[in-house]
Each structure stands twice: as structure tokens, then as C-alpha cells.
Fold:
Amino acid sequence: MKETDKWLVIVNPKAGASRGEKDWPKIRKLLIKEGFSFFSILTEYPFHAIEIARDQINEYGYKKVIAVGGDGTLNEVVNGIFQQKRFATTDISLGMITVGTGNDWARMYNFPSNYESAIRIIHSERTFLQDVGKVKYRYDDEDKSRYFVNMAGMGYDALVAKKTNLMKAKGKGGALAYIFNLVVGLFQYESVQLSMTIDGQEVINDKVFSMNIGICRYNGGGMMQLPTAIPDDGEFDITVVRDTSKLTVIRNIKKLYDGSFIKMSEVKTFRGTQISITAKPHNAIMLETDGESLGVSPLDFHILPQAVKVIVTKRTLKEFDIKKKVSALVVE
Structure:
């Protein structure tokens, strides 16, 4: 089977409250103008991007892929890249044109929302090897697994994501929908008693309100849940918010956007490569990854260092290189 030099472009027409469908003709013209040779496919149902990426790479040998959508679309494309058997995942270059509502992965990389600028960056094919997370979880009494490239949220975070996704399905998504559910969800959620081990050591055995585990810094449309995350350092960043009052959450929502909430007494932060989370079966903790609602505990996470090749700006490469050196000095 031959490889192809063409780009595979996977478009989610539902992304960004159907902005993907509305803007795709414009994006298509810009790709042609910039000299891209490509084959495009529009997704038709949830998880379709996984199938498209996997099958098209296996059958036709695509080694350059562009996801047109939001964080969920990117997540599906990454899972398709990991399911294909033809190439090493790091042999495939992955670019992103953001038309979603949150765009938190792109925010980490200072990726422009302007389509023409984003396409020029992709055309440069300047790549960066990013870590990838894998989580095993339970869904309908079956064990499942999922790869992710941004962040996993549990507990209250996962409830807010689920409520927001239900609104998106009705065409009412967006950053404001997330904030709305952030407040409304407070009156529907109860903290969960759980145990968490990191690299074999139990670090939490307590009631937990919310937690995040990830590679990049943002979720929920710009909330800096993991403010010190570096996407190629080979470790997860972990933030745990222990049981707290509803009033405390409301008073400190603003701190989620600049990352300063991690200084609160209710918050603990960790780093590690393998994480296990268990809760009583009748009181399991909910899970979302990259904004997509998945299932519940027990949960097992492990990191795959520098396992996916993403296209980024030159500025981003310099920024992460500097931050890695600073982080290493602090550890030493």
C-alpha cells in the first residue's frame, strides 16, 4: 500500500454550535489558496472522527491530518491516530483549525482563532512532540479506555461538562453555558469519598469535590485548572479540590481563570505518571476527558511521553523550552 502526500482534513460540522458547517466552505477555500492538497470528510455522528482517522490512515496512508472543530473533535482524531496500525503515532503530523466553543488545547499553544493565520502555521509544519494521557474507566459495567491530549476532569468538573454537553447537543453550548452549569451544578452535586494513589503511593483518602489530571493548562473555556502544566515533561499535573462549601466555590470562581485557586487551603497539587482512583461502587466519581463525558470510576491513568506530533508556532517551541529548563532548576 502506498503512502499519500495529501492532508486528511476531518471536519466536525456541529462544532461551535454548528459554526463548523457554516465556516467550512471558507476554510476550504483558504486551504486551497495556501496550496494544500487534501481530502476532506465531515463527521456525521459522535465518535465518527475516531473511525475516519483510523480507517483513512490505515487504508490510504495519510501522515498529515488536520482537525477542524473543537477540543472534542481533536480528542477523537487523536484516538483514531492511536487506533490505526499503519504508522507510529509520532510519524503523523496533527494540525488544528479551531471552530469550537472552548478551544482549550489551542489556548495552551497560543493558536490563533483567525483561520488564515492558523492555516499558515499548519503549512509551516513546525512540529512538537506532546505527551498523551490514557485513562481506563467503567461505562455501563464495561471496562473502557480513552486517550486524551488536554485534561481529564472528575467529580464536579465532570458534572459541569456533562450538563454543558447536553446543552451543546441542543445547540445551546458555549463558554456562557459552561459558567451557567458551573453555578447550577453546585446545587446538584455532592462530594465523593475516594482514594487516589500516584506512582504507587496513596496521597488522598478523603471526600473530594473536584479534580483535574492533565497535560495542558486550560479547560472549561479558559479556566486554568493546571497552571504549571508543561505538555512534554513526561508527567501529569494533578489538582485536587477537597470537600468545600458552595459559597467558597462561588466566591472563588474568578481564581479558576488565573490559576491562583491552587493556593487555597482546600486545594492540593501533585505530579506523577500513573494514577489510580477508586470510590465506593454506589458512589462512583464521574469522568470527562477533553470536555467529552465518558464514564465513572474506578479510574487508572498513565502517561505516554511525547507520543503525538502536533503542529505549533515557533513562539510556542521557545516558550516551552524555557519553562522546562526553569522547572528542572526548581526541582534540583
